[in-house]
Amino acid sequence: MILNQQPSQTESPAMLDSQTNPVISRQSLGPTWPTMDPFLFCAYHDDAYPAGNAEMGPDASLAGRNIGQDFSRKDGWSMYHGQKVAGFPPHPHRGFETVTLVRKGLIDHSDSLGAIARFGQGDVQWLTAGSGIVHAEMFPLLETTQPNPLELFQVWLNLPAKNKMAKPHFTMLWSQQIPRLIAKDAHGRVTEVVVVAGKLQAVGNPTAAEKSVHPLPPPPDSWAAEVDSDLAIWTLKMAPGASWTLPAASAKDTVRNLYFFKGQSVSLNGQPEREHAAIELQADQDVMLENTGSDEAEFLLLQGQPIAEPVVQHGPFVMNTQAEIVQTLSDYRRTQFGGWAFDPYAPVHGREATRFARHPDGREEKPSAQE
């Protein structure tokens, strides 16, 4: 879904210079990005995989890599925990959600609920681990005569105590269905906002039909499904010279991180930002963003009301107390969270590039139109 917003009567960056600086803090971007409650983790993968081989792994030597634990970025890519195909073979989770935004390339998903999927090219998978799930995330390299670039975010979103033992839930948000706002400034320069979660309330004077953009429904037990969570996950892409007003959050106590990860330079209310960073913002302020560089600028926005509960993490398990972690380890040893029914160990789903999902109840779905 794409909504077009016409030029709005908003303040220019110069007019906003005198306003309160919206930046609370900045942190450099590393392999994983800093987050705040209700978020637990954010990883950005940008891998320049080569052409694929007959097994859908990289058609390149793996010599010099610590196979099974390869995070080297040697030659611009990693195998991660994969042996032949890059990716993350079966591993468990409990007590939180994973939200995976795939911008380039494909992921092959399998899980202990019985669900499988191939998704990418703008799709989002939202997986509520809840009481426990095992899943695999493999990166099939289907192109055999050209590179296979892969770019994605994976965000871990905490669950409140009342939902940590909720039934696991598998959700696909297909790219063609995810709402987008296409906003043009007074000079016709475009900002695109992809609204994965959280209503976007436009600033200025858009038409009535364009005043707000509503996301697809989140999973039922997600913190995002709480009326007052003020949770948002958006990506922003700004043309060179474009300006756009990021609207204030709905609640004063909301926390907001804006990750500037591509582009040369931008400004926030006239304040220059020349280095890629996680920028914590005052969430109760509108912020005029301007791309002051000569190429596109891109951002990820994560915001929400804090859950404000104790967090005890042990690897892939996130609970509220140490006793709950001990119980989780016992449960996993006893049940394997449903076990692993797939052969081979790290399955990929064939050589056809078709994106699809098969849900635990056997229901199958595909994007309305394959890209």
Automatic annotation (TrEMBL):
For this protein's source organism, the top of the classification is: Bacteria, Pseudomonadati, Pseudomonadota, Betaproteobacteria, Burkholderiales
- Organism encoding this protein: Polaromonas vacuolata
Binding residues annotated for Fe cation, in chain numbering: 91, 93, 135, 137
The record places domain Pirin N-terminal at 79-157
Cross-referenced Gene3D superfamilies, in alphabetical order?
A: Jelly Rolls
Q: Which residues form the Pirin C-terminal domain?
A: 234-338
Sequence similarity: Belongs to the pirin family.
The Swiss-Prot or TrEMBL record lists the needed cofactor(s) as: Fe cation
Q: How is the cofactor bound?
A: Binds 1 Fe cation per subunit.
Q: Which GO terms describe its molecular function?
A: metal ion binding; quercetin 2,3-dioxygenase activity
Q: Provide this UniProt record's keywords sorted from A to Z.
A: Dioxygenase, Iron, Metal-binding, Oxidoreductase
Report what the protein is called: Quercetin 2,3-dioxygenase
Q: Which EC number(s) does UniProt give?
A: 1.13.11.24
